[in-house]
Write a structure and sequence with these properties.
heterodimer; A: mainly alpha; 76% helix; B: alpha/beta; Rossmann fold; 2 domains; six-stranded mixed β-sheet; 37% helix; 22% strand; elongated
């Protein structure tokens, strides 16, 4: 067959990976070639720097209590406690994950945008005509959202890993970042970033509307903290012990429970329960996004 | 602190969303830009017999789509042959876009089938190498360049990325490839859509209102392009409500109204099959004598300006009659029913809104 343009390019090989690998690369191209992804990355870096600064100041005042600020004896006791090896490890862990509890929102919203920008800019039709296997497209997007979450975590952690030793050195306390007390929350934070990226993508795939999905994502995150309030009120009415641990069913609280060393709130269930619940939400949303995108007409 | 953060996050999101929308508006405002100079005949067209293009026939059988009780497309059947430009006509809301989307696997039919070369679009191996489509006026992300948009499609389809530059040149967008889509005029957006459709050098082109919003130069360019690729033996299905454009462009017509097939066939035969016949304007000093000789079937209606419109007899019959009657003819003009008239005739009374 004669080529439309006697194309030299079409005789060359394209990306020979499997469809999924090809599509994941295409998703990264999509993120790279608009400025939205870069805005998110710059915003996240700025946010992490801010969180490190605020966290650093608060730890500084904990280590060096100011005169005339409340109960001086208690403050000094706390400062001494903070300087023990366990205290320093806790400080290190806190510095290493500075801002990451809220920082997962960046992964969440970028996940939402990866899918909803296709519908908002009417490129979904082109995407699904190019690759009729819609489920494969969504799988590639899920993978891209998870990778973006991991990337945010990596950037935040690298910044923290540079800042934390410098900060500890400046505060004249020992530097120890290798202990499990520090590594565990850092790794769990990675899980949280990946989970929220996928959560956002699933939510966007189900809702499709960009504005609705963005605000729904924020509402889910912020609204989760209302669960503590609701269950506390219920406890005051019915005095059932399980009600105090029940807020973990809200996604952001589950995430909090998973990543926090020690109880995230009084009567909080163990970390694995939080991880399990968050994973449940993520798997359910991703599956719903796959099914809905496969079934629903692209109009 | 939390309130401040929330305000920053929400403010940022509102800004992002509004900015993206603003991009589209800016682009629309520039509708009518001629854009960079485009070659009139970008392709060295050479006729390839349809036999060399197997599998290019589009076959729609009993296609039906219901949306909540309303039949947007109702038991529609037609075929589109390779090597010809087929115009897919209908008033707004007739179901053209829904039909094309069912053909491309974007919308699931309630009943019936739509196949290309006997295969459903979703089952095609490497569909981008077989079928090119323009939907949504060449939509792209406003903050992405035209070149990036095409390179992403290449990457998705497993085509070499260098193909993006080739089709940019082909569509006359070479100079604008590195500009953001939001700065494209409407005509440039359509050309980007054409470029995307041509990526896989497909044997079938499906275009939804490609001439919509184009300036006259753009329309001519589109017409030449489609003619050229049809001559190469490709299958072209192009929807439109621009009737005059279709009359010049199409070989065959498929006309639908209210989701149902109204007429199908070569342009001339669709127009010829109409109950609406042509009329002939005659100027003659002996109109009464002429009318008497013409006989019963002919109806002579004076035009109030010394002439008359005659229906029921063609120019040959009128000329012969004038010779027999010995009447001079000063003017004899056949007014052919045009596609516009045919279209209105065929779709009359089938309101767009159902």
């Amino acid at each position: 067959m004669r080529g439309l343009l006697d194309s030299a390019a079409l005789d060359q090989a394209g990306d020979t990976g499997t469809t999924l690998v090809r599509l994941i690369r295409a998703e990264f191209m999509k993120i790279r070639t608009t400025d939205t992804g870069w805005f998110f990355l710059i915003g996240f870096i700025a946010f992490t720097a801010l969180a490190l600064t605020i966290n650093g100041f608060s730890i500084h005042y904990q280590l060096y209590p100011q005169r005339g600020s409340g109960d001086r004896a208690q403050a000094l006791a706390q400062a001494a406690q903070a300087r023990t090896p366990a205290g320093v490890a806790a400080i290190s862990a806190s510095m290493m994950t500075s801002g990451q509890r809220i920082g997962v929102i960046f992964a969440l919203l970028l996940g939402v945008l990866i899918i909803t920008s296709e519908f908002a800019n009417q490129t979904a039709a082109v995407t699904f005509v190019t690759v009729p296997g819609r489920a494969t497209v969504i799988r590639a997007k899920l993978a891209a959202a998870a990778c973006c979450g991991a990337l945010f975590w990596l950037v935040g952690t690298v910044i923290a890993a540079v800042a934390t030793p410098l900060f500890l050195y400046s505060q004249h306390v020992g530097i120890s970042l290798a202990g499990w007390t520090v590594v565990r929350p850092v790794l769990l934070s990675l899980l949280a970033f990946v989970a929220w990226g996928v959560f956002g993508l699933g939510l966007g795939a189900v809702l499709r509307s960009q504005i609705a999905s963005l605000f729904a994502a924020l509402a889910v995150y912020a609204g989760s903290f209302g669960a503590i309030l609701v269950f506390t009120m219920l406890y005051n009415l019915f005095h059932q012990g399980w009600m105090l641990g029940a807020p973990v069913i809200a996604p952001a609280i589950a995430s909090e429970v998973m990543t926090t060393s020690g109880p995230a709130f009084p009567q909080a269930p163990p970390a694995w329960a939080g991880g399990l619940i968050l994973t449940g939400y993520v798997v359910a949303l991703a599956a719903a996004g796959l099914v809905v995108t496969k079934r629903r007409d692209v109009i | 602190m939390v309130v401040l953060l929330a305000a920053v996050v929400i403010g940022g999101l509102v800004w992002l969303v509004r900015r993206n929308r603003g991009g589209v508006r800016t682009g629309r405002a520039r509708t009518g830009d001629a854009g960079p100079g485009f070659p009139d005949r970008p392709l060295g067209g050479k006729r390839v017999p349809p036999a060399l293009m197997p599998g290019g026939r589009i076959d729609v059988r009993g296609l039906t789509k219901e949306y909540g009780g309303v039949r947007a497309v109702d038991d529609l059947s037609f075929t589109v042959e390779p090597g010809r430009v087929t115009g897919f006509l209908g008033p707004n809301g007739a179901g053209k876009t829904t039909t094309l989307r069912m053909l491309l696997g974007l919308v699931e039919p309630t009943a019936g089938t739509a196949t290309i070369g006997g295969v459903r679009y979703a089952d095609l191996d490497q569909p981008i190498r077989r079928v090119g489509a323009i939907l949504e006026a060449g939509a792209a992300h406003p903050y992405r360049t035209g070149r990036s948009h095409l390179r992403i499609l290449c990457q998705s389809a497993g085509l070499p990325l260098a193909r993006a530059d080739e089709v940019l040149e082909l569509a006359g967008l070479g100079a604008a490839g590195n500009r953001l889509f939001r700065g494209y005029s409407f005509g440039m957006r359509q050309r980007l859509g054409v470029a995307a459709a041509l990526l896989g050098d497909p044997q079938v082109l499906i275009l939804d209102e490609p001439a919509n919003g184009l300036d006259p130069e753009g329309i001519r360019w589109m017409r030449d392009l489609l003619r050229t690729v049809a001559l190469q033996g490709r299958t072209i299905l192009v929807s439109s409500h621009l009737l005059g454009e279709m009359e010049q462009l199409a070989d065959d017509l498929v006309i639908i109204a209210a989701g149902r097939l109204t007429a199908q066939g070569p342009v001339a035969s669709v127009i010829g099959s109409l109950p609406y016949l042509g009329r002939t304007l005659v100027r003659s000093p002996g109109l009464e004598k002429l009318a008497a000789v013409l006989g019963g079937d002919a109806v002579v209606t004076p035009d109030g300006d010394g002439g008359a419109y005659i229906t029921g007899a063609d120019a040959v019959a009128i000329g012969d009659a004038a010779l027999r009657a010995g009447v001079a003819i000063y003017q004899l003009v056949t007014e052919r029913p045009d596609l516009e008239a045919a279209f209105l005739e065929l779709t009359a009374g089938k309101a767009a809104i159902r």
